[in-house]
Each structure stands twice: as C-alpha cells, then as structure tokens.
Write a structure and sequence with these properties.
By secondary structure, this protein is of the alpha/beta class. The protein has 2 domains: 148 residues, Alpha-Beta Complex (Quinone Oxidoreductase, Chain A, domain 1); 151 residues, 3-Layer(aba) Sandwich (Rossmann fold). The strands form 3 sheets. Strands 3, 4, 5, 6, 7, 14 and 15 form a 7-stranded mixed sheet that branches. Strands 10-9-8-11-12-13 form a 6-stranded parallel sheet, sandwiched between helices. Helix 3 links the parallel strand 8 and strand 9. Helix 2 crosses helix 3 and helix 2 crosses helix 8. The structure holds NADP nicotinamide-adenine-dinucleotide phosphate (NAP). The site of NADP nicotinamide-adenine-dinucleotide phosphate (NAP) has 29 residues, from helix 2, helix 3 and helix 9.
C-alpha cells in the first residue's frame, strides 16, 4: 500500500498558495508492537494551520519544510498491534494530511459511529465545538438574556457558538462574509440577526441597529475592523472572548487599528484570549453535553466537503478565503 501525503514545501509570505504544498507518495509502514495503522476518512483543515506554516519567534510548533502538514483526522484502524485500539474501530487524532497514519494511541479518541457520523468529531463534537462551548460559557460567561455578538458566525466554531447562545436564552447577532451565510445563520441556526461585512459600510451602525440594548458578550473569531466596531457598543461588565484573529493571519505587516481600549475602562469590560487546550481536563463532560444536544437535534454544523488528499491545499486556501459554510473537511 502506498501512502499519499501533503508536505509543506515553502513558507508563504501573505496568503498561502497551492505551491506552498507538495504531494508525496511513500510506502505505508507496518505497525510495530503497541502501534496501529489508521486509514483516514476525513481530514480537517483549520485556520491555525496558517500559523504552523510560519517559522518566527512568535509562532509555536512550526511544521518543518518537507514535513507532513499537521491536522486532525477521523479514520478507521486497518492494522493493529495495540489491544486498546483493535482493527475496525473508528478513531480521531492528530494524524496529519495523509491517507494512512501510524499511531501509538497518544491523544487518540475512540469514536462510536452509531452515536453520530464520524465527521462530527472534527466539528460540532470535536475541537471547534469545544472551542465554542468553553469560549462562550467560561470565557464569555454568557447568560440568559445577554446580547451575544459572534464574528466568523457561519464557520465551524461560529456556527456552534450561535446555536449554544440561543440554547441558553441569549439574543444572538452574527457577522459573516456573504448573504448566503447570513441567511443560513438566521434561518437554519436560529441567530436573531446578522449582517454581511463585505457589503456593509458601517459595522458600527449595523451592530447598533441589531443590538439595541448593547453587547454583553463578544465572541471574536476574526479581529480587525469588525472587532473595532464592537468595543464602543459593549455594556457594563461585558466579556470579550478572543478566540481567533483570522483577519490578521496572512498580514505581512500588522495593521494598526483605532485605539479603542478606553471603552474597556468605562465599561469595566473583561477581554480574555484563550486556547481550547486550556480546558482539556473538562473535554469529556463538555463532549457528553454537546453530544446530547446533537442527538436531540438542537445542535449541528453544516459541512463543506472537498474530495481527495490531493485537493487538501485547495480546500485549506478556500476555507481561509471564506468558501465554507460550517466546517471545511477533506474526504479521503
Ligand atoms: N482559541 C482556540 O483555541 C481556537 C480553536 C479553534 C479555532 N480558533 C479560531 O477561531 C476562528 C474560526 O475558526 P474555524 O475553524 O471555525 O474557521 P471557519 O470560521 O470555519 O473558517 C474561517 C472563516 O474565516 C472567515 N474569514 C476569513 N478571512 C476573514 C477576514 N479577513 N475577516 C473576517 N472573516 C474572515 C471566513 O468566513 P467569512 O466568509 O465570514 O469571511 C472563513 O470561512 C479562527 O480565527 C481560528 O483561528 C481558535
């Protein structure tokens, strides 16, 4: 059996392009004692991978040139010499952009394909769902009656944030990059309102109109001018969860925004960045709650699926450009 892999070929300056990646074909390796071989079914492409393509002091764990791109996958165990992970079982893990991966089980989660489709372990019942859960409830401290604004509202994390906020009784306003995305979050996900930032002149005016009682919680996936527009509208003791800043990930020079921090003084607001990993010891409990809501039909995430490992670079680039509604996956 051959293993097709996508490795990092070059470090991008600005927006990544397909030539920054290379498709390699290598023979698969038999598992040694304690190891098992996973055949990938779905690969997740995520914004954090853009940071891993850089090699600069402020970036953690860069992928080396020639190394398989980092990434979470779900797949089936096809050969095993590890009794805890027998052949035929489905698992998720950080297996990278490749068709087959060897593992010893570290960080690998067993999946029950009868409980939910295995691809959900890469979004609503996986890292993006957990990010939404802890970011909204622990960092954002959202409560019933709050007005919650979500940027990147139609993506993998944002879709779940909005639905969770509705489930606990908040008013939810989403910001996303197309009219179709706004229709989706309002009609399918139950957001109260939203606007397309690509066709809106004044983000401040659009938010003020949709948040007549101000903003209690801001879940920030994007940063930049959308976030600048939120600050003046924050209520007393508001919480801002800094989850992502995708508008800055491809910036060659960091842009200098308006200096709006005085709003935080007047509003006694709390702004806190977080990584989902900070909550690792609580994953199990959160996943069982998310799974319950998913099985009750109260929580879901649309998928945009691109076929073939050879198209993973394109899928990643398109996700960074906003082509996805919900979670961008690559089907292997
Ligand atoms: N803190 C953590 O532990 C953690 C964990 C997971 C994810 N994150 C962060 O959460 C954010 C969302 O991640 P995700 O996996 O759910 O990705 P996603 O939202 O499914 O996909 C990325 C989306 O970003 C939007 N975007 C791209 N460029 C933008 C820009 N200049 N301004 C505004 N929006 C832009 C695009 O949608 P539009 O069409 O709306 O532009 C695109 O669909 C990312 O910033 C990611 O880094 C953080």
């Amino acid at each position: 059996m051959n293993n097709r892999q996508i490795v990092l070929a070059a470090r991008p300056t600005g927006f990544p392009c397909e030539t920054d990646f290379e498709l390699l074909e290598t023979p698969t390796v038999e598992p040694a004692d304690g190891q098992f071989l996973v055949k990938t079914s779905y690969l997740s492409v995520d914004p954090y991978m853009r940071g891993r393509m850089n090699d600069a002091p402020s970036y953690a764990d860069p992928v080396a040139i020639g190394q398989v791109m980092v990434g979470a996958c779900v797949g089936q165990i096809v050969q095993s010499r590890n009794a805890r992970f027998p052949e035929g079982h489905y698992v998720s893990g950080m297996f990278g952009w490749q068709e087959y991966a060897l593992s010893e089980g570290e960080g690998v989660r067993r999946l029950d394909p009868d409980a939910a489709p295995i691809s959900t372990a890469l979004h609503v019942l996986g890292m993006p769902g957990l990010t939404a859960y802890f970011g909204l409830l622990d960092i954002g401290q959202a409560e019933a009656g709050d007005t919650v604004v979500v940027s990147g509202a139609a993506g993998a994390v944002g879709s779940v944030v909005g639905q969770l906020a509705k489930l606990i009784g908040c008013r939810v306003v989403g910001v996303a990059g197309s009219d179709e995305k706004i229709r989706h979050i309002v009609t399918d996900l139950g957001y109260d309102a939203g606007f397309n930032y690509k066709t809106t002149d004044s983000y401040y005016a659009a938010l003020k109109e949709r948040c007549p009682n101000g903003i209690d919680v801001y879940f920030d996936n994007v940063g930049g001018p959308i976030t600048d527009a939120v600050f003046p509208l924050l209520n007393q003791s508001a919480h801002v969860a800094i989850c992502g800043q995708i508008s800055q990930y491809n910036a060659v020079e960091v842009s200098q925004g308006p200096r709006l921090l005085w709003h935080l003084i007047v509003k006694r607001a709390t702004v806190r960045g977080f990584l989902v990993l900070d909550f690792a010891e609580h994953y199990r409990k959160a996943l069982s709650q998310l799974t319950r809501w998913y099985r009750e039909g109260k929580l879901n995430c649309r998928e945009r699926v691109t076929d073939g490992i050879e198209n993973a670079p394109r899928a990643f680039i398109e996700m960074m450009q906003g082509a996805n509604i919900g979670k961008q996956l690559v089907k292997i």
